[in-house]
Design goal:
By secondary structure, the chain is of the alpha+beta class. 42% of the residues lie in helices and 16% in strands. The longest helix is centred in the last third of the chain and has 14 residues, at 65-78.
């Protein structure tokens, strides 16, 4: 997934058959914060993750890396 209006340049992840998230990876962005998000989300429920992260903003931006991840997961679930 190519995020928009944030510092990270790419987000990759897997969703297994049980709708659990694995292998989240951000290219670029804030390594400390995004590294923590990656650890917290390993094995998390995809639908709950979308609800939790959607709408989180980064400063005055209209989105954030977490919000972009929520959008990417939501799009993946809709496929």
């Amino acid at each position: 997934y190519i995020p928009q209006k944030v510092c990270s340049k790419q987000i990759t992840f897997d969703i297994d058959d049980n709708k659990k998230i694995h292998n989240v990876n951000f290219v670029g962005g804030c390594p400390g914060n995004l590294g923590a998000i990656v650890k917290l989300l390993e094995g998390a429920d995809a639908g709950n993750t979308v609800k939790l992260l959607r709408g989180n903003l980064c400063g005055s931006k209209s989105t954030s890396c977490a919000d972009q991840l929520a959008q990417a997961i939501d799009a993946s679930l809709s496929e």
